Each structure stands twice: as structure tokens, then as C-alpha cells.
Amino acid sequence: MPSARFIQYGLGPIGTGIADLAAHQGHRLVAVVDIDPAKIGRPAAAFISGAPADVVITADAATVLNAGADIVLHSTQSRLAQVFPQLLPLVDAGLAVISTCEELAFPWIHHPVEAASLDALARSRGVGVVGLGVNPGFVMDLLPVILTSPCRDIRRITVSRVVDVDLRRVPLQQKVGVGLPVEEFRRGVAAGHLGHIGLPQSAAMIAHALGWTLNRIDETIEPVVGRNDVVQGVHQVCRGTHGTTGEIILDLTMAAGAQNPRDEIAVEATPPIRAIIAGGIHGDQATYAIVVNAVPRVLAARPGLLLPTQLPPVAGTTRT
């Protein structure tokens, strides 16, 4: 893998894991941006193994735009409205960007104006911008699309993902409402604070790859309830319909102690395809690798706002 100079933007659990892996694989960290007062002004090496001793964490992204980076590895928020003001100056400075913002994986569905603006700016500056991660970005969209390659007469794609969040980071457990009363969970969903972000984006990405036009996309979000009416997690289902013959169903359960964790993909077509990944793909570890392994592909990609399905195949690395 060719080495690149990178800025790490966001140093939460996911950003730290990405930066650790990127440095481990030979990429050079040139700057770190984070707003946590406990991290500002401290050496990046205190949080990122392999970070150069002279890199100090800053809260002001404007001060690192000329740090000599090739690409920014961005991991801050899930909503495009939150990250759009962060992304524009980076792209305007001629920096390629890989972001774990879920809505950036297919922003045209909910934010077409912002997507068009970001695409035009990236094209004018000659850089690629893409939203990547495990979900959206791989397991519930890119992987199903790849599995349709030997198929014709595709009628339905169903993806089921079951995640035991006991095995995942605490912020994710909080995001899916573990430990909350049911009514508090419902208020959090209504306010947009709880639940997984990205299923409509994944459905739209699959449809785009298949050349389908979705008539509608519907999503339901319900709590997984355990003893004493305490929430253990979330069950979300997204359905997209194409005419009267095509359907995309994305079924996601993320709960503490979830039984039979797995990733399962079924393609109703000729021939039919069914694939099961027992245990499921570990989201945090996979996100680190997906982002870092994509660095050379994004740097070599055509300029503009890209989809995960538009990148050349991103192979894993054996380098240790």
C-alpha cells in the first residue's frame, strides 16, 4: 500500500482506531483535529500509537489545512448537516476526504443540495470525497451489490444484520438505547438522538447500483425490550420498492445480548443467492480497516463526491 500523509479529524473511539491503523500501515500523520478540551494541546502520540512526537492536537481545523496532507480521515458526526461545515474547508483546500459520516454514504437521498455543492467543489479542486464505514458502506449495501454480479431478473434483496452490542463500544450501546425505559427510548428516537443512521442511504445505494428508481423508502424503529420493560437495543427495518416488481429490505437488530449475531444476505433472482457471515462483521474493527484500506483508491479516484460502490475493489492488507 503506498503511504500517504493524513490528517485525523475527530479522535473519538472510531477516529483513534482509524489513526492507529493508518499509522501502523505506514501512512504519516501530519495533524490531528478534535474539540475535546482534554485532548487539545496534547501530543497526538498520547492517543495514537506511532504518531510523530511533534504533532499536537488542535481544535482549529483552519490551522492544519496547509500541513502538507494528501487526505483527511474524518470521523466526527453521523448527520450531514453536522459535518458539512467541517468538510467544505477541507475540500476547498484541495484535500481528499474519507468520512465515517453515515449520511455521506449516499447524501443525495436527504440532502441533494448539499451533495451537489460538495460534488461540484470536489470536482473543481480535483479531489475525491466519500463516506465509508461498515454500515453504511459495506455490509448492508456494497456487499449485497457485489453478490448480485452473477444474477439476472433480480426481484428482491434482503439483508439481515444482528449485532450484540455487549461486544461493542459504550457510545454505540448508548446510541441504541441500552438501559433506557421504553418511553424515554421513544422520545429519543423522535428527537433523532437514538437509533442507527444509514439504512435509507444503504437502500438508495443498492437501488442506484441496480439502476432502480425507488417509489418510496419506509423505515420503522422499535425498541428491543428485556426484563422490567428496560430497552436492550433497537430493531430497525427499511423497505424500498421499485415499481411493482423490485424490493429492498434491510433488517437491523442491535441489542445487548442479541442471539445468533450474523450478517445474512438473500438475493431473489436467477440464480438465487444466500450468504451468511456467522457472528457478523465486527463494526469497529471493520470500519478502521475499510477506511484505511481505501486511502490509495480514493487518492487515485476521479474527483467528486463518490459512492462506496464507485470505488475500485478495496482489498485488505496483510502488512503487520
From TrEMBL:
UniProt xrefs under Pfam families: DAP_DH_C (PF19328)
InterPro entries: DAP_DH_C, NAD(P)-bd_dom_sf
Domain (2,4-diaminopentanoate dehydrogenase C-terminal) ranges: 138-312
The protein, known as: Dihydrodipicolinate reductase
Organism: Candidatus Segetimicrobium genomatis
Organism lineage string: Bacteria, Bacillati, Candidatus Sysuimicrobiota, Candidatus Sysuimicrobiia, Candidatus Sysuimicrobiales
